[in-house]
Amino acid sequence: MTNKTTVLGNKVSFHCHVSSESVTYVRWYFKRYAVKESTFGNSMQATVTEIRSIVPVKVSSFVGNGLNGHLFSGESVFLVKNPSLHDEGEYICEAFNEHGRVRWGAFLVVVKGDFLLFNFFIINVFDHL
Fold first, then answer.
1. What are the φ and ψ backbone dihedral angles of 95, each rounded to 5 degrees?
2. How far, in Å, are 13, 18, 69, 93, 122 from residue 61 at the CA level?
3. Cα distance between residue 121 and residue 115, in whole Å
């Protein structure tokens, strides 16, 4: 999975690619980071929420090169349809089967459209100096 930056309101998707010798299931999580203020100073607090329950991976290919002669390959996609600033955080894909589990994560940053244009302009100006 790769980190993503998107403009406020523009859909974005995360792709979790899985290869396994047996049927694999995927669960998606969202981890939001927030600053927690206290009398002793500020600290980061993370909240993890399950955002999609267990779903089987859609098999896109079936190749005969696994240890038992079969390898299932596929992906699970999580779509953020209308991202807002509240959707910023880490998206975690957990793939699991009878042999164990693996987790991958990627971060989403949501920006306003004018920020991206401003940032693009500055980069282009400095590239031409």
1. -100, 135
2. 21, 11, 14, 20, 44
3. 10
User: What is the set of domains in the chain, with CATH numbers?
Assistant: 4-127 (2.60.40.10)
Q: Are 16 and 63 in contact (CB under 8 A)?
A: no
Max Cα distance, the chain (Å): 61
Q: Going residue by residue through the chain (129 aa), what tens digit of pLDDT does each one get? A: 899 999 999 999 999 888 887 778 888 899 877 666 666 666 666 777 777 666 666 555 555 544 445 667 778 888 999 999 989 999 999 888 888 899 999 999 999 876 554 555 444 444 444
Q: 44-67 burial, b if ≥16 CB within 10 A, otherwise e? A: eeeeeeeeeeeeebeeeeeeeeee
Q: Report the alpha-carbon distance of residue 28 to residue 76 in Å, rounded.
A: 9
